[in-house]
Specification:
The complex is a heterodimer. By secondary structure, chain A is of the alpha+beta class. In chain A, 55% of the residues lie in helices and 17% in strands. Chain A has two domains: 183 residues, no CATH class; 179 residues, no CATH class. Chain A is built from 13 helices and ten strands. The radius of gyration of chain A is 33 Å and the shape is elongated. Chain B is of the alpha/beta class. Chain B is 34% helix and 30% strand. The chains are: A alpha+beta, B alpha/beta. The interface between A and B is medium-sized, with 24 and 27 residues.
Amino acid sequence: MIRTSDLISSAGRALRANPLRSALTALGVIIGVASVVAMVSLGRGAQASVQASISSLGSNLLVVVPGAQRGGGGVRMAPGSFESLTMADVEAIEREVSGLVAVSPSQRGAGQLVANGLNWNTRIEGVTPAYLLARDWEVEHGRFFDEREERQARKVLVLGASVARELFPNVDPIGQSVRIQGGMFEVIGVLESKGQTGFGQDQDDIVLAPFSTVKRRISGRQRRADTVSQISIKTESEAALARAEEDITNLLRQRHRTSEGEDDFTVQNLNSIMETANQATAAFTGLLAGISAVSLLVGGIGIMNIMLVSVTERTREIGLRKALGARKADILHQFGLEAIALSVAGGIVGLIIGMTGAWGITSIFNLPFAVGVDTALLAIGFSGLVGVIFGAYPAWRAAQLDPIEALRRE
Amino acid sequence: MDALISARDLVKLYTMGEETVHALDGVTFDIARGDYAAIVGPSGSGKSTLMNILGGLDTPTGGSLSIDGADMLALDDEGLAAFRNHTIGFVFQSFNLLSRLTAIENVELPMIYAGVPPAQRRERAKEMLHRVGLGERMTHRPTQLSGGQQQRVAIARALAGEPALLLADEPTGALDTQTGKDILALFNSLNREGATVVIVTHDLEVAEKTRRTIEMRDGRIVGDRMNGAQAA
């Protein structure tokens, strides 16, 4: 019986005898594995990025906006394009739906902030103190306004990190005055930074003010006094999310006297949006990996081709080895191992190239670089499998050769 | 002397299309241990077929053949491979060395298939190369060696597994006259040291250098004589 170490060194020698040919043969697998690894890593990075940006909006969050997103006939309005939600709806949700930890109405507005000799145009969101909890947001510096200040419509502001940076580049913004549409407001806090959304929108380019203040002094003058532009709701757990979504939908239908398909409001469930986004990126990753796998297949066919050529070229060698006492199994193993060695070597090089490529692309596009051990093992295991599959037939052909015929061959 | 090879009514049939060819047509002979014999005959006489059968590369269609105690008609594929590995040492006309291996690695080759540990087989290969007079050229590759030297490497390889039978197929066919004589002298000295040697050749001059000549024609043995010229 031949020793395994001799089998391995014999395969190594055969491959080293023709280094250029071996390298070119492995190139097919290198390209295949590199592209699969790069695509899977990129897909994972994109997925992680989408997940991070969606969960930065808040966890276990339901957002109710006016307008129908889907539904029956007639004119469909874009969500938020008109105001069908009222403070009464907010109070009804707080009163009648269980399993909620925070319910905050918000009133959207926009305006120019002037302070410190600088000015900045931004979104001014009127909210209640529950908003921070609903959105998983924190005040980094200073404080948030309380219930009393909200009820009294005090002219206080909490700045988003970007706004604070633009208006007060060198000064502590706390206690500073800001003028909005002729009124003077006091800055009482700065929010922690949330970064960009998955769509490149700066989440920190915002100013939070008491709901009633925005209603009365910034955006409310032209509109009905009791409408709200959005309701942010946080449930106590992920499990309570679906139930709360249904309860809120039913409650609002009842209050608005609408039936399914004619709703004048939309309840958005961020978890289900995240799920959809995940599915989309996973499908996309799968598609890219699938296309890459085709090149791996082509690489495998290249190995089979070269191994068949090699068996033909080395017919005399095979005949000699058999004459010296090699069994069919020894020949089968020798040639099979050569194919596997080619393919696995290609797999390892491909893995390194693929990871480097993925790292390069993720750093260019600012995506997280996510490479798992499983990707590496999968790449190497897969290339080994390619070697086994495409090396099997040439190796079998070699093993079947008749030694007399083989020795006679020139 | 007991018989190393004992052949009785050996028959080998080949079917070529419609026609059946009797490559061996009832061959009976014995070869004793320590003998030095030549099998001669023109091409088509069946001597190559006989050599392939003696070497375990082919199996007879009928008759009986026992070599070193093995019933050659009963061996399966694996059994034949093991037989070739342990019992036979082949020497070919065209040397059949692997060009990417050094001389010593070529000699180690049959021992690899016998599963001999590396250190032990390197030692044995060195010993064999010294024995054929190539102690100085162990790390040369075949292309760096002359034809005679290559054939010596091949003989060292054939000896490495301590075979019961050294089987040479036209061993001088690719060599010039003087080198051929040297190689035959080497066989002669190996035989005197105890090796059983069978040379298959069409060259009567080569056959005369052995102790015994078995002559074949049309698949039959037509002559079997001791060579008086063999002085030993």
